[in-house]
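To fix ideas, we close by showing one paired sequence and structure record:
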Amino acid sequence: MDFSIVIPAYNEAHKIKDDVNAANHFLTKQGLKGEIIVVDDGSQDDTAKKAREVETSNQVKIQVIRYENNKGKGFAVKTGMLAAVGNIIMFADSGLCIPYDYALKGLSLINNKECDIAIGTRRHKNSVIKHQQSPSRQFLSKAFRTFINLYIGLPQSFTDTQCGFKIYTKKTAHQLFSLCQSHEFMFDIEILLLAFKHGYRVLEFPVTWKSDPDSRVLPHHNALGVLREIISIKRNMKKNI
């Protein structure tokens, strides 16, 4: 199988069909034999049911994984990434903030052996922002990036750790997500730290992005929980050095 797309979802019944249809259209148009894995993170609506109703092309398989209790975005992504069997595996947030065609940029970087992980970033100089976040979210996002760089020690060259549009080789994805212990919003940070520790190459690439006002990812609404998660990640990395 060429390409796996993992979509974590929580209470996305009103838009998950659009996500799956867009992923299916991308894989079909590019002639990729692929799979779409929707991981329903304990939704209280019909997310899983709506996802199963989508018909995909003959070359694209769809798998819907559902569990009853909400366990966090990191757990959902980990579940999907470890279940994926494609030679290249990506995860994309629900909401189509970034058109799937931009995955070709990341795929090219990996196929040309330039990196093992390709990250779509909203803050690349060549990225296009069609619908900006609110001023308050922009401020909080900038403050978060500054804190993470200072506390965790991520390289300043990485501008957008939380953008939900990341592409991995299968080997890289399976190793890193099998090691990842963070199950909430900050799992991306742990994955990057693990990637650097194990010598994987990471590159960012520009995208066209629009804000999803219905996003479920609002970490500033649980700032204390996010802080605890960050501290836990740093502590776990020190233990494993």
Summary: The two ends are 35 Å apart (CA to CA). The chain has a mean pLDDT of 89. The beta strands are 3-9, 34-41, 60-67, 88-92, 117-121, 128-131, 165-169, 202-206, 208-210. Helices lie at 16-29, 47-52, 73-83, 103-111, 135-151, 170-179, 187-197, 223-239.
